[in-house]
Write a structure and sequence with these properties.
- It comes from Bordetella genomosp. 9.
- Residues 10-83 form the Phosphoribosyl-dephospho-CoA transferase MdcG N-terminal domain.
- Pfam families: MdcG (PF10620), MdcG_N (PF20866).
- InterPro entries: Holo-ACP_synthase, MdcG_C, MdcG_N.
- The chain is α+β, with helices and mostly antiparallel strands and 226 residues long.
- It folds into two domains: 13-81; 83-206.
- 20% of the residues lie in helices and 25% in strands.
- The protein has helices at residues 83-89, 101-116, 124-132, 155-162, 185-189; strands at residues 14-17, 44-46, 55-60, 67-72, 77-81, 120-123, 143-148, 172-177, 182-184, 195-199, 202-206, 219-221.
- It has a five-stranded antiparallel β-sheet with strand order 4-3-2-1-5.
- It is globular, with a radius of gyration of 18 Å.
- Mean pLDDT is 89; it is low at 1-7.
């Protein structure tokens, strides 16, 4: 879960903030300012970090180079849209860029993802454009999905989800959220013994992404590259 507490916001959720809100500054740091390119009408994306009660967020701009990490507080949130909400509303059917590969992939896979019985939805640039109704996607944009699985996936479920990538014309990246963090389905499917689990306290290698991520018998912290 995100550092803000159960049920409020998870990584990849989109938050619309009070336009008058300024970035928060945890740990007594100097208060930052929003970048000049920020569009206050657009949401911020919940990212992974830890500093309750602050919520770690990321800003997206109109270009790939426009990214900015910041913090906000629960009281600044006006609205939350989750990837699962976008999936339920089938937002891609009426989006201006519905003919692009990532949108066509959603149209092709949605019913099969529903049949899997796990909460799912689009994230990344596709999810952002669906939520904001903006036309920022390119023909080569990936499709990123979040699937929430509070208990271990069966081998049949892993293979079922893994084979979905064979049916679409764009790159498909499925992230499995366990409650302890998130990992790439393709990496788990490869059966290498361990998987990289992204947590609020940093990435770790673990043999069981559903276990306590900080138990020494299950995981070791991945040191940042020097």
């Amino acid at each position: 879960m995100s550092c803000v507490g159960p049920g409020l916001a998870r990584p990849h959720d989109l938050l619309w903030l009070d336009p008058a809100a300024v970035p928060s500054a945890p740990h007594g740091a100097e208060r930052p300012i929003w970048p000049h390119w920020r569009n206050a009408a657009w949401p911020v994306v919940v990212r992974r970090d830890h500093c309750s009660p602050y919520i770690p967020v990321g800003l997206r701009g109109a270009t790939r180079s426009q990214r900015y990490a910041a913090w906000t507080l629960p009281g600044h949130i006006l609205n939350i849209v989750t990837p699962e909400t976008l999936a339920r509303t089938r937002a891609w059917l009426t989006h201006p860029q519905h003919a692009l590969p990532s949108m066509r992939a959603l149209r092709s896979l949605a019913d099969d993802l529903d049949r899997c019985g796990l909460p799912w939805g689009p994230t990344g640039s596709t999810g952002f454009c669906l939520a904001t109704k903006t036309s920022l996607l390119r023909h080569d944009s990936d499709l990123d999905l979040r699937i929430r699985a509070s208990s271990p996936l069966t081998r049949d479920e892993v293979e079922y989800l893994g084979h979905l990538a064979d049916r679409v014309a764009c790159r498909l990246d499925i992230q499995i959220e366990t409650g302890s963090g998130g990992f790439a389905l393709n990496e788990w499917r490869a059966r290498r013994g361990q998987v990289l689990l992204k947590t609020n306290h940093g990435p770790i290698l673990t043999a069981d992404p559903w276990a306590d991520p900080w138990a020494e018998t299950h995981a070791r912290t991945v040191e940042p590259a020097s």
